[in-house]
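pasting for ref
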Amino acid sequence: MNENKDRNIFYRRIGMTVFGIFLCGISVGFFKLAAFGVDPFQSFMAGLDCAVPIRFGTLYVIANVCLLLFSLFADRHYIGLGTIINLSLLGYIVEFSYDFLKQTFPDPSAGFRIISFLIGVSVMCFSSAFYFTADMGVSTYDAVALILVNKWHIGKFKFIRIITDLMCVAAGCCLYIVSGGEFSKLPQIAGIGTIITAFFMGPLIDFFNRKVAWPFLYGKRNVEKSS
C-alpha cells in the first residue's frame, strides 16, 4: 500500500516538474507581449541578450550553466530533472511562446497588454510553486534563493527572493545601457511590471505553494494535519 502511494507521489512529482517548467516558459511569453518589463531574471537575460549577439535560447543555456556551477558547489540537492529540463528547454519555450503570441496578437491594445501582464505574473508564480514543491530540481536561478534560505539560513524566502530579483533587474539594466540600448526602450526590459514582479513574486509563490502545490502533491487532509 505504501509502495503504491510512494510511486504515485513520485509520478506526480515528475508531472508537476514538467508542467511547471512548461507553464513558466509560456508565462514569459505573456510578459514579453505585455512589454511592461519581464520578470527579474528574464530582465537580466534581456540585458545580456543585447550585449551578446547569439540566439536567445542558446544564451539562456550558457547563462544557466554558469549558475549551475554555483549550485553544484553550494548544494546539489536542488539539481535534478527539473534543472536539466529548465536549463535545456525553457529558453526555447520562451522563444516559441513569444513568437506565437506576437504573431497572434501583432498590435495588442493597452488593455490587452495589462491582461497579458497579469496572466504572466499569475502563471509564473503558480508554475514556480509546482516545480518547487515537486523537489526534483529547480531552475539554476531559483536555486540561488533557496540555497541562501535553506542551506545558509540567511532569511525568509519571500524576502531573499525580493533581494535577488532586484539585483537581477539592476544587472539587466546596466547590461542593456552598456551595450548601446536606447533609454526610451528600457521599460520593455525593466519597467513597472518588472518592479511589481520583483516585490510580489516571492510572496505569491509562497502562497501558491501552501494553498495549491502542497495539497495537490500530498493531499489536502495531510497538509492540514501537518500545519
